[in-house]
Specification:
This protein is mostly helical and about 170 residues long. It has 5 helices and 2 strands, in the order ααααββα. A hairpin with an 8-residue loop joins strand 1 and strand 2.
């Protein structure tokens, strides 16, 4: 198994250690038995097991920086993509909340002869007692005045930037 492990060293360091450590252990046990029996029979095999096992362990240890150099950027990239997806998801939830709050504001104004609610909590109060409107990204919602729309302090600004960039790109193409 230790020669097989030596051949697999470039492929999988944990597998290499799994195969080389037993070779070293068995080599040491065999050496001890041979010395206690005061014979030379099997001495070459025990030394071969020790040499192959220790070489395999050394190659595994020396190859770890290479594996880390390959794996760490990949993990960092995957983590960045996951964070980006989570942020996009939070922005979508916030946009959905803004739309629902806007609909609730319009309904409130219809029911109260055009009067604005004093706060988001008052807007939610009659229909959802104890409920609070919170942006999942940490922003705060504002009612936006009589003719204004409900907005999030965090995501509405980002949304406006994205719309402005899209408008600029459309003008550049035209």
């Amino acid at each position: 198994p230790s020669i097989f492990g030596l051949l697999l060293s470039p492929c999988c360091p944990p597998l290499m250690l799994f195969l080389c450590v037993p070779a070293v252990i068995c080599g040491h046990k065999a050496r001890g038995r041979i010395q206690r029996a005061m014979t030379t029979q099997g001495g070459g095999t025990s030394v071969a097991g020790l040499v192959v096992g220790y070489i395999g362990i050394a190659l595994t240890i020396l190859s770890l920086p290479i594996y880390l150099a390959i794996a760490l950027p990949a993990f960092t990239k995957a983590r960045a993509k996951a964070t980006e997806a989570r942020d996009a998801s939070i922005a979508l939830v916030c946009q959905s909340n803004v739309r629902q709050l806007q609909a609730a504001k319009e309904q409130y104004m219809l029911e109260h002869q055009g009067a604005l609610p004093k706060s988001i909590d008052e807007l939610l109060g009659p229909s959802l007692p104890g409920a609070t409107a919170k942006c999942p990204g940490g922003g705060a919602y504002s009612l936006g005045g009589m003719n204004g729309d409900v907005a999030c302090s965090l995501h509405s600004v980002e949304e406006e930037k994205i719309k402005a960039q899209a408008d600029e790109a459309a003008l550049a193409r035209a």
